[in-house]
Amino acid sequence: MPEGHTVHRTANQFNQLFGGQPITVISPQGRFAEGAKLVSGHKLVAAEAIGKQMFLRFDNDLTIRIHLGIYGKWGYLKLDGLEAEDPVGQVRARFSNAKAAADLRGPTVCEVISADEVRLVEQRLGPDPLNPNRANAEAQRFIDRVMRSRTPIGLQLMNQDVIAGIGNVYRAELLFRAGLNPHTPGNLLTREQLQGIWDDSVALLKVGVATGFMITRDELFKKRPKKADRNFVYKREGLACRECGVNIVIELMAARKLYWCPGCQK
DNA sequence: TCTGGATGTTCAT
DNA sequence: TGAACCTCCAGAG
């Protein structure tokens, strides 16, 4: 489920499994064979997530940048000294030590880049609500950026240069929780409204990191709700709004499905 | 068993 | 704006 929370969970898992240790990197599928050779056997200094991208920094100043895109998935194997079985299906990259292995399938990006190239990517990405550093400055950066543009807030929340880590599910749910019509131009919103969206994104993403699920209904945060119960509007087109009873609508916004409630989001 | 859809991004037109 | 990328899975039959 590649929105920002998933990538932060993966980075945490990588630091636990492989952090500070030499790591074997292979490409069973072959498409990452050259990159794997550059870093395999080197120590993983740290795994870091920014928005939907993960950076694996090695002790030879090279970094693997991974973006799952829409298809990408991770699978984990516990080894405890046993040999890993041959991968099933198209495994772009396998990361392993004696204790564990992580298989990467179908990513949009899996490449080795230099420290300078890492900085270029970091500069382009917008603030990440899960970035623990400079939390207040990051919020202001988000607010200023949104207010500069007439682009609808529903589009801006999907732009990784504006806010890194939000995808289609959180976009729909954040706007519902804020009571905002997705078509509202960014420059017509107030600082208070945008601060509210930012704070809510921090809270929802933290729930996502903790649970692994995109739960957006407060009363279900500490439970394990079924998929159909987790959200207010996402994938609920034609059903009655949980708050006002008006039917949830679906429309295409920049070729992505947008779900919202015309009753609650005036 | 088959088909369509999916939480995303980039590039060409 | 639409196609391409590329893999898995839920739902249909």
List the defining traits of the structure above.
single chain; 266 residues; alpha+beta; N-terminal domain of MutM-like DNA repair proteins; four-stranded antiparallel beta sheet; 20% strand; DNA-binding
Structural class: alpha+beta
Query: What proportion strand?
Result: 15-25%
CATH class of the largest domain: Mainly Alpha
The CATH architecture term of the largest domain is: Orthogonal Bundle
Radius of gyration: 20 Å
**Total number of helices:** 7
In oligomeric terms, what are we looking at? single chain
Mean pLDDT: 91
Main beta sheet? 4 strands, antiparallel
Low-confidence sequence ranges: none
List the topology elements.
Layout: H1 4-18, E1 24-26, H2 33-39, E2 44-50, E3 53-58, E4 62-67, E5 73-78, E6 93-96, E7 100-105, E8 109-114, H3 115-124, H4 135-147, H5 153-156, H6 168-178, H7 191-211, E9 249-253, E10 256-260
Antiparallel strand pairs: 1-6, 2-3, 3-4, 4-8, 5-7, 6-7, 9-10
The protein binds a DNA duplex (13 and 13 nucleotides) through residues 1-3, 6, 52, 67-73, 89-90, 105-109, 158, 160, 167-170, 214, 234, 254-257.
